[in-house]
Specification:
Strand content: 35-45%
Helix content: under 10%
Number of helices: 1
Strand order of the largest sheet: 1-2-3
Distance between the termini: 29 Å
Shape: flat
Length: 66
């Protein structure tokens, strides 16, 4: 088993690495990958994934408690 590592990137998304499976609330698999980037700012149009909206909106970690 590969260990999953979650790293909040500076002023960006959470990087989740290590055999990741993302499911919807019904248990359907949305994505399987070795690394995914999950939205932390709340602006992404592709939630739960990051689409870079944090950069366009000027979001920083200091702006929220996330």
């Amino acid at each position: 088993d590969e260990r999953v590592v979650i790293t909040p990137l500076k002023d960006g998304p959470n990087q989740v690495a290590g055999g990741v499976v993302v499911q919807d609330p019904d248990g359907n698999i949305i994505k399987e990958a070795s690394t995914v980037y999950l939205c932390r700012c709340g602006f992404s149009q592709d939630k739960p994934f990051c689409d870079g909206s944090h950069r366009r909106r000027g979001w920083t970690r200091a702006a929220t408690s996330a």
